[in-house]
Amino acid sequence: MESNARAPDENEKKSLAPSDSSLSRQPEKRNRDKEKTADILDACKKKDLGRLRGLATSERGLISDPVRKWAWPLLLGEPSHDDVTVGEKGDVDTWKEMPKHRDEDQVQLDVDRSFIYYPNDQSPKDLEQRKTQLSDLITAVLRRQPYLCYFQGYHDICQVFLLVLDSDKRSTAVTRLSTLRIRDFMLPTLTPALAQLQLIPSILYAVNPKLCNHLPRTHPYYAISAALTMYAHDIREYGDIARLFDVFLAREAVFSVYMYAQIVLGRSDELFETPSDEPDILHSILSKLPKPLDIENLILNTVKLYEAHPPETLRPWSSISNFSVLKTAREPDRVVEQSLEDGEMYFNQQVKELKRAEQRDKILRILWKYRKPAGTVGLAVAIGILS
């Protein structure tokens, strides 16, 4: 997809460079950050996405929010003129005239408890203004893409985008993220999201079978909060979550799943201290991120983990829907090439699969119920339901 983004000019590059006050007093570190900032802006100007992804993944990521506001939309595939949402073509209030989305009441409840941990220098008036902006952002996205289903924690993701991006970029970026990167979480059920988590035990077993066997054999629900919210609900330090978003937007959609597996692997000593016959305690440990969380080492080790055990080597991978974001966004370049219409098409295909699976499960339950009286009766009932 060809982007119509305007690259920063020389004066803007100077203003985007990290100021001395925002950097360490160590001259070497300050110079490295300035050099990397220049590299990032040059990659943005040339739309060299491969280079930009490498910079976003490497140490310190995209350095600062003024740089992220150029890079994040590009990583998401900033749209051509024809693909820009109505509100960003000029009439920013068009969404207000659209039908109310079914989940707006829950949106407001979540917005009311947003911005708890960051930013921490805002007045009550500033806080209310941000909450209004957040509510408008989420509502605009949902009304323009009414098929999407809101989930609790979506506001945690959106508030990060609100803090980083300018108002004229937010809606398009969040819409593309929602339809092309986190679509599995915005379906009518959480089944596709839970299917993603099934990859975690497989990754753990590939690296450390002893640890995998030590952990509860139940579904890895402990990772659901982090997975759904791109870790934004679980990480309270703004700099850390912005840094993680750099790499999540630059890498494959499945990368965040590998990251949680890496977090578990890094806690093996702690986990082995808890007996395997204490599943509730193990689940409690697994559901909380370690503190402090060494973000840079975590990213580096997750990259190594992903390269050593790519998704195709994992047994549950074959069970992931071909319309899941894990496969439609298997390579980051594919997201850039996709349109919102592609995202809606994949969404509808996944919904059809979910309905077929639900119908199949219903038939199997009926067949089981009628297994003793007569197999033919159960079969007849099943055929009636199927028809």
TrEMBL record:
Could you state a single Gene Ontology molecular function term? GTPase activator activity
Q: Name one GO cellular component term.
A: endoplasmic reticulum membrane
Cite the record's Basic and acidic residues compositional bias ranges.
26-41
User: PROSITE patterns recorded for this chain?
Assistant: TBC_RABGAP
Q: Which Pfam families match?
A: RabGAP-TBC (PF00566)
**Per the database record, which ranges form the Rab-GAP TBC domain?**
62-252
Q: What InterPro entries is this protein classified in?
A: Rab-GAP-TBC_dom, Rab-GAP_TBC_sf, TBC20/Gyp8-like
The UniProt keywords, alphabetically, are: GTPase activation
Question: SUPFAM superfamilies, from UniProt?
Answer: Ypt/Rab-GAP domain of gyp1p
Region of interest: Disordered: 1-41
Matching entries from SMART domains are given as:
TBC
Q: Name one GO biological process term.
A: endoplasmic reticulum to Golgi vesicle-mediated transport
Q: Where does the record place a coiled coil?
A: none
PANTHER family named in the record: RE60063P, TBC1 DOMAIN FAMILY MEMBER 20/GTPASE
Name this polypeptide is given: Rab-GTPase-TBC domain-containing protein
Species in which this protein is naturally found? Amylocarpus encephaloides
Lineage of origin: Eukaryota, Fungi, Dikarya, Ascomycota, Pezizomycotina
